[in-house]
Structure formats: structure tokens, C-alpha cells
Amino acid sequence: MTSIRIVRFAVRATPEEVWRALLDGAVTPQYYVGFEAHIDPAPGTPYRYTAGGGDMITGQVREVVPGRRLVTTFNGHWAPEVDALPESLVTFDLSDALMPIPGVTLLTCRHENLPDGPLAEHLELGWVSILSGLKTLLETGTPLAA
User: Fold this and answer.
1) Residue 131 placed within a domain
2) Domain annotation covers residue 145
3) CB atoms < 10 A from the CB of 63, how many?
4) Residue 11 domain boundaries
5) Per the domain annotation, does 61 fall within a domain?
6) Comparing 132 with 117, which gets the higher pLDDT?
7) For position 32, which CATH number holds?
8) Exposed / middle / buried, residue 116 (Cβ in 10 Å: 0-12, 13-18, 19+)
9) What are residue 106's phi and psi, to 5 degrees?
10) Which pLDDT does position 1 carry in this prediction?
11) Count of domains forming the chain
12) DSSP secondary-structure letter at 24?
């Protein structure tokens, strides 16, 4: 059986600001556990997150709607048990139309095709930490973790 993990946050920022934070390798280390993004947001292109000179996450961009939607495959490499997982799918959706507050973006992260169990729960908590960090950084200008 496979898990689908969904994490949602209301971020006091425009979809364009959230989009930039998701893709900009100069920004991602401040909230994404030190991982630097290397993403060309074009369908079919490979992407990776690096740290300490090695690949932590690799995959392929599947779908892009600039400023609104990014779908990628996901292969984690930071621990042997994560590396052993089958390829999964991560989708980020951004919308300000659903929010009743001007200047606020609803950021939804959906991680699909994970085997059920503690590792899927661990990855979900990872997304909560990462996206909490993104929210804090965009709203305060300061990283969540120093």
C-alpha cells in the first residue's frame, strides 16, 4: 500500500515570492535543511538538491505552471533507508485565489507513492519542517533554524 502525504501552509507572500523561494538555490539552504536547489523549471529536465558536495535529492521535473505548480519525481539519497525507497512524486501547488486574505498564498505539498510506515511519516515531518522554514523566512526574513 502507498501513502499520500499532504502538507498545507498559508504564507504571507505572493505566489511569485513563494515560487522563487522554492526554486532559487541561493535561498533554499536557508530553509531546506541546508540543501541547495539546482532546478531548471522545464518539464523533462533533471533536478537535484545538493549539500556538502553530494546529491541529497534527485529527480526529474514533470510539470510546470510558473508561479502556480511544480511536479517532480523524488529520489532521496541522504540515508540508506531513504535511498532504498522507490521513486515517488512531489507536487507543489500555490494559490492566492483560495485565500480570503490578500497577499497570502496557500502552499500545498503533496508527496505520493510512498510505502506506508514510519519512513513516510518521517518524510511528512520533514516537509512540515522545511515548509515551516520557508514560511518563516518569507514572512520574517529570518531562517527558522539558526
Assistant:
1) yes
2) no
3) 11
4) 2-140
5) yes
6) 132
7) 3.30.530.20
8) exposed
9) -85, 115
10) 56
11) 1
12) -
Coil, strand or helix: which one is 17? Answer: helix
3-state secondary structure 58-94: EEEEEEEECCCEEEEEEEECCCHHHHCCCCEEEEEEE
Taking residues 26-48, report their average pLDDT: 97
Q: Which amino acid is at 146?
A: A
Is 133 a residue whose pLDDT tops 80? yes
Contact 5, 114 (CB under 8 A): yes
The cell numbers describing 76, all together, are 532521496
In angstroms, the CA 84 to CA 53 distance is: 21
Distances in Å between the Cα of 131 and the Cα atoms of 42, 43, 77, 84, 138 are: 22, 23, 20, 24, 10
pLDDT tens across 25-36, in order?
A: 999 999 999 999
Name residue, grid cell 494559490: 95
**Chain centroid, CA 103 distance in Å:** 21
Residue 7 scores a pLDDT above 80? yes
pLDDT in tens, 75-109: 999 999 999 999 999 999 999 987 788 899 999 99
146: in domain: no
